[in-house]
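Per your request, structure below.
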């Protein structure tokens, strides 16, 4: 959760590559959703051993030798389409907020995968947290920065439009609950937040107890929260 550095789009440099950073911006372009290979499965033609290779960047690897110890086959592998796994992916571009040069705002490419796909709209103001990578086209030595998003936070959700309660979805509730827990635990000497207080605070923001309880259970389940005892939680 923590440990990422806040950077402005215009301040991103090559030395930041491979670091986890948080960047704010306004969504300017949204690309189409594409299936993306996550792992490719190959079967050894000699012994029928099945190997799963991760896809690195845009390259799908091929086995160099059979991973079955007693086989030793170095050529002849069949790609198994059905056993290869795919994930939804999408590219979006964000532009800096309050650009110094409004005619040419700096922009940044963002890669979204899985659950993050299709979660933003053009003009949304968001904070993207993820790993900065460099993308190179086949024949060029000059690349583009791209951030591979792990999470996206919308400003709208953060500022909590209480009047617009109907717009509260589970993602929003989760962020609100996390914010409450963070606030309560930071002001507590034990760094724990009392669940009772969390539910009270949530109620003030029109999140019903049942909904808050369910959300806390989910957060615990995902490992986002630790429970020192049955009445307290803290953020991991
Ligand atoms: Zn083999």
């Amino acid at each position: 959760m923590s440990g990422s550095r806040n950077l402005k789009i215009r301040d991103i440099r090559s030395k930041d590559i491979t670091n986890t950073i948080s960047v704010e911006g306004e969504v300017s372009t949204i690309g189409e959703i594409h299936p993306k290979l996550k792992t490719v499965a190959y079967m050894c033609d000699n012994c029928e051993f099945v190997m799963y290779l991760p896809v690195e960047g845009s390259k799908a690897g091929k086995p160099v030798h059979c991973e079955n110890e007693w086989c030793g086959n170095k050529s002849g592998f069949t790609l198994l389409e059905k056993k290869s796994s795919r994930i939804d992916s999408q590219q979006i571009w964000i532009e800096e907020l309050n650009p110094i040069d409004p005619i040419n705002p700096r922009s940044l490419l963002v890669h979204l995968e899985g659950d993050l796909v299709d979660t933003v709209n053009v003009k949304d103001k968001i904070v993207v947290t993820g790993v900065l990578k460099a993308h190179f086209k086949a024949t060029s030595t000059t690349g583009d920065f791209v951030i591979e998003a792990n999470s996206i936070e919308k400003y709208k959700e953060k500022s909590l439009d209480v009047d617009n309660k109907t717009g509260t979805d589970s993602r929003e509730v989760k962020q609100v609950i996390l914010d409450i827990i963070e606030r309560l635990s930071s002001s507590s000497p034990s760094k724990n937040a009392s669940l009772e207080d969390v539910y009270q605070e949530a109620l003030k923001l029109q999140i019903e107890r049942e909904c808050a309880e369910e959300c806390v259970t989910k957060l615990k389940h995902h490992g986002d929260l630790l429970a020192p005892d049955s009445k307290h939680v803290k953020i991991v």
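The first helix runs from residue 155 to 159.

Regards,
D.
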